[in-house]
Specification:
- The protein has 154 residues and is of the alpha+beta class.
- The chain has one domain: Alpha-D-Glucose-1,6-Bisphosphate, Chain A, domain 4 (2-Layer Sandwich), CATH 3.30.530.20.
- Helices cover 35% and strands 32% of the residues.
- The protein contains four helices and seven strands.
- It has a seven-stranded antiparallel β-sheet with strand order 1-7-6-5-4-3-2.
- A hairpin with a 2-residue loop joins β5 and β6.
- The protein starts with 7 loop residues before the first strand and ends with a helix.
């Protein structure tokens, strides 16, 4: 896909170190506190892991393609790529997440990018709350309940 292909881009300041934010995306024990139902293993470069989301049947084979601790993390899913850029900023971390290369069959890439923007905004907001207060606000879990209800699986 070219550079003008649809992409989701979300940025947020988190009052935590880049190393802490990075670990939150890599380690299952952290991922399960704000985003995932389960993860089969920690992310490791070029090693597929299974991510299970709180929506019934929602899973993703996740393969880290770039791992630069405290600075940059990228992974591929079956139908897109995600990149998380971390920069020290004002005593915390500026997090920029980009989701692109949408390839889901029979799906509009613009709709995929819009849905990803909404979803990742919620993920980053819940991560921010967790890292700054020690407790998840349950934002992603609440969104998962709404998705399940709309799909008729709740």
């Amino acid at each position: 896909m070219t550079n003008d292909s649809p992409r989701a881009r979300v940025s947020l300041y988190i009052n935590a170190t880049p190393a802490t934010v990075y670990e939150a995306f890599v380690q299952p024990r952290h991922l399960k506190r704000f985003w995932l139902q389960d993860a089969s293993a920690s992310l490791k470069l070029n090693t597929p892991v299974q991510w299970d989301f709180p929506v019934e049947g929602a899973t993703a084979q996740t393969t880290a393609t770039v791992m630069e601790p405290g600075r940059l993390l990228a992974w591929d899913w079956e139908t897109s790529r995600v990149q998380v850029e971390l920069q020290s900023f004002s005593g915390g971390t500026a997090v920029t997440l980009i989701n692109d290369r949408f390839t889901e069959p029979d799906a509009d890439p613009v709709d995929q990018a819009l849905n990803a923007t909404e979803g990742f905004a919620l993920v980053l907001a819940d991560l921010k709350t967790l890292l700054e207060t020690g407790t998840s606000a349950g934002i992603t879990a609440a969104k998962a309940k709404l998705i399940a209800a709309r799909q008729g699986t709740s």
